Amino acid sequence: MLTAISRAIERRLPLMVVSPLFAVSLFFVYGFIAWTGYISLTGSRMMPSYDFAGLLQYERLWDTPRWYVALKNLFVFSGLFIGISMALGVFLAILLDQRIRVEGAIRTIYLYPMALSFIVTGTVWKWILNPGLGIEKVMRDWGFENFTFDWLVNPDFAIYTVVIAGVWQSSGYAMALFLAGLRSVDDEILKAAAIDGAGPWRVYTRIVLPSLRPVFLSVVIILAHLAIKSFDLVVALTGGGPGYATDMPATFMYAFAFQRSELGVAAASAVMMLMTICAIIVPYLYSELRGARK
Amino acid sequence: MASGIRLEKLRKSFGGNEVIKGIDLDIAPGEFVVLVGPSGCGKSTLLNLIAGLETVGSGDIFIGGDKVNKVPPRDRDIAMVFQSYALYPTKTVRDNVTFGMETRRVPKDDQAAALEEFARLLQIDHLLDRKPGQLSGGQRQRVAMGRALVRQPEVFLFDEPLSNLDAKLRIEMRTEIKKLHQRLGKTVVYVTHDQIEAMTLATRIAVMDNGHIRQFADPATIYENPVDMFVAGFMGSPPMNMIPGRVWHDGGKVFVLPRGARESIRFPVDGPAARGADLPDGHEVILGLRPETIFAAGTELPGPNRYVFDAPVEVVEPTGPDTMIVFQIGGQDLIARVRPEDVAKPGRAFRFEVDMTKAKLFDAETGKAL
Amino acid sequence: MRARSTSGIVRRSGPGAVVMRVVLFAVLGLFCLYYLFPLFVMVSTSLKSLAEIREGSFLAFPRDIGFEAWAKAWGSACVGVRCDGLQPYFMNSVMMAVPAVILSTTLGALNGYALTKWRFPGADIIFALMLFGAFIPFQVVLLPMARTLGELGLAGTVPGLVLVHTVYGLAFTTLFFRNFFIGVPDGIVQAAKVDGAGFFGIFFRIVLPMSLPAIVVTVIWQFTQIWNDFLFGVAFTVGDSNPVTVALNNVVNTSTGVKEYNVDMAAAIIAGLPTLLVYVVAGAYFVRGLSAGAVKG
């Protein structure tokens, strides 16, 4: 009788142990998403209120010029950041794949920025791009008297400084992912290509890169994910400025939530961010999980 | 005309580890040479060296009389079939097969003609628009062969091409490869660890061990007259019985007394195996008896140099056409191959007969055949 | 990363190949400079005096090496109104990162083990839900989390941050361990069950000792993530409980007084040093974590 009970406990133990864990962590994710979602449908401002107000906050959000700036910046930034990081990543990965003896050391150098906080990256690039003392001064000292490089404080160009620093930090990561992909191509396939007489260019363009399609997809997803969440880098590099010229949805949400106390609009913008990421991630995860099951 | 291959004093090391330890080999044009040996013996490395997929350490490689040490694979006039088939996963079967011709700028019409010819020959013409992922193992194998064949090279290299197939398909493809060789008459170098594949396919076999070629000869010689215990033990399944013992002269005859056996058992080694005759009494030797030379007493027509002895049966293993009987001499397990109808019960005594004309004698110290 | 067996393929040699090789190394070297020069600028600026910074080029080596900026960044730079340097905030980060890493790694291992080796109904769905949790933009939980921390009495405290990082780190750690345990043959667990071991017995005595590589990867990943976090730090802490990333940002953006670039750079190095050290010491595991983060599912 007792053993039967203990056996029953033993059988259910795993569930008993992990279910509170899962419950808590799922609550912190989905419960909170629901809360934010609900707040975005109320008239909340300073304090959360729970009276339903329909899509009022979304209307206010889409009436805010700053939100459009943030969205435009997100598109400009993501496009350039993803594009340049990937191009650089593939390029460097292919170069590193050419029987380089010091490959390990070079890889370490290319990848170390990824270990840094975006705040550190932002701080140092802010210094490098400083119009008074950074690159601009160096170029002038070298004799280019009229050289101007004031992107950091120029509202039209400041977003590109975020791209510069972001690419510096993340392109090594893209390189590492592509290199791992290149290395996963079966050696015998490369040998077969050598016997078929394909030179390096043809081997990469016709055989290796086409088979890396899943890797390209992964890298795009990861970089897009980084881009949409980018908050720290903007804060450290430009503080969202000049004005709100480099605002992004992430900084927009933060500013409205914690500085302007517009909880409803902040919640609405957070939901917009979530939906954007869902649109990218959910199909990807779905295909990954299905692919894994096959 | 097919090209011959000549290897001279070939050596190759990886790091400090020497994998090919000075190999000389002369392969005549049109031969089918099988490199066989246990894993890690260097056979695949040797094949890669011939293909140009590894750089030569020292020594020379000649294909068709030309030294090719520094010639890239594409210019060696070779084609290769890999163990994993190494099909390009993103290309269709058609593009897989024609890729080599394309890189060599073969005119489109010639490509199509070659593709059609060999696709029909290999029965892959209905698969041309599929990707490798949609093919079965056997079909992939055929495509890989097709890719090698359309090149119409002088030399074919095969690296364990059948080891990923199931047993039935393997035998089918084996026959097919042999047919292709007979039909095309090109030189083939074929690597396998499967000694049956080696026996069935080769015109000559090179048995490799630890970076050396132990013996290079036609299959019959390798099987009947192995130069040492390694070759004797590697070729044949079940393997040759190796019985340690001592030479003994008695009444003008020479015997081998198995170590640890009762005194009544003494194998007469007259006739072809009598090379032990000049050895002094007590010299340590290994007597090699293939399982099929040990059978139930009286079941074969009488012949010269038969030896009959009794031993209790340990285990009986029917295989269908034959039955293996495991018995012991001097505490060592030996295998006899008898007809299925010669039933024996474990534990009972059984009367065996050995054809001593087929017996081999090896020096216990050097392992060399006597 | 493993060595290639294709490196021995015989290639045409000649002057063309040599030139290509030289170009290849030149390009690789150029990119090394590209990635290294911000680090160089950071270090050299931190060793210069303010006067030298104003006169000279930021690419120049420091003339007189001095560690005053470092001392100031560590001990007396002003963060907001408080002028004790980064030191107290660095300690905050340590107090935040260490428990959060331990908790999230342990619980993640338990989760991953339960999800793969004690498959229960709904395990796949729970995993999919957890997996998605690793990708959500954290902005969507900022507001309710701030409220929850307030109600738990943890608002503006380091333990509050530990809770936040543990909860949202769990998605990643579960993912890592689940992917690792999937590769552990079920037979091992079955055999232990037959031998009479229970859920925890198998976990502590068999599974955990096998998963050292996964533990190392996860700990490094989590430490880097948590140490480098800024969003949670800035949203959920105030003043004295700020982690070092937030303090660094405050140092740099303090608008009062003279702008001390050398102190800024020294502060940036101090804030970045722990993760940089981890990367240098355990780079291989760091890379594995990055690619494990890439290949989900």
Automatic annotation (TrEMBL), chain A:
Localization of this protein = Cell membrane
Q: Which family does it belong to?
A: Belongs to the binding-protein-dependent transport system permease family.
User: Could you say which residues form the signal peptide?
Assistant: none
**Name under which the protein is recorded:** Carbohydrate ABC transporter membrane protein 1 (CUT1 family)
What's the protein's topology in the membrane? Multi-pass membrane protein
**In terms of domain of life, where is this protein from?**
Bacteria
- Tell me the ranges covered by the ABC transmembrane type-1 domain, including all copies: 71-286
Keyword field: Cell membrane, Membrane, Transmembrane, Transmembrane helix, Transport
Tell me which InterPro entries the record gives. ABC_transporter_permease, MetI-like, MetI-like_sf
Q: Note whether S-adenosyl-L-methionine occurs among the keywords.
A: no
- Gene3D superfamilies, A to Z: MetI-like (1.10.3720.10)
The UniProt entry's GO biological process terms, in alphabetical order, are: transmembrane transport
The record's section on Pfam families has: BPD_transp_1
Question: Membrane-spanning regions, if any?
Answer: 21-41, 74-96, 108-128, 157-182, 203-228, 263-286
Q: Which CDD domains match?
A: TM_PBP2
GO CC annotations, alphabetized: plasma membrane
From TrEMBL, chain B:
The UniProt entry, under CDD domains, shows: ABC_MalK_N
Which keywords does this chain's UniProt record carry? ATP-binding, Nucleotide-binding, Transport
Q: Where are the transmembrane segments?
A: none
Q: Which domain of life is it from?
A: Bacteria
Q: Does the keyword ATP-binding apply?
A: yes
Which biological process, per GO, is one annotated for this protein? Answer: carbohydrate transport
Family annotation (Pfam families): ABC_tran, OB_MalK, TOBE
Q: Name one GO molecular function term.
A: ATP binding
- Which positions fall inside the ABC transporter domain? 5-235
An example of a Gene Ontology cellular component annotation for this protein is: ATP-binding cassette (ABC) transporter complex, substrate-binding subunit-containing
Keyword Transmembrane helix attached: no
Its family remark reads: Belongs to the ABC transporter superfamily.
- Designated name of the protein: Carbohydrate ABC transporter ATP-binding protein (CUT1 family)
| UniProt organism field | Rhodovulum marinum
TrEMBL record, chain C:
Q: Which PANTHER family is this protein grouped with? A: ABC TRANSPORTER PERMEASE PROTEIN, GLUCOSE IMPORT SYSTEM PERMEASE PROTEIN GLCU
| Pfam families to which the protein is assigned, alphabetical | BPD_transp_1
Gene Ontology terms describing biological process: transmembrane transport
Q: Where is the ABC transmembrane type-1 domain?
A: 90-282
Q: Which residues form a coiled coil?
A: none
Q: Which Gene3D superfamilies match?
A: MetI-like
- What's its membrane topology? Multi-pass membrane protein
Descriptive protein name: Carbohydrate ABC transporter membrane protein 2 (CUT1 family)
Keyword terms: Membrane, Transmembrane, Transmembrane helix, Transport
Q: Does the keyword Ribonucleoprotein apply?
A: no
| Compartment annotation | Cell membrane
Family, according to the entry, reads as follows: Belongs to the binding-protein-dependent transport system permease family.
GO CC annotations, alphabetized = plasma membrane
Instruction: Spell out where the chain crosses the membrane.
Output: 18-37, 94-113, 125-146, 158-181, 202-223, 265-287
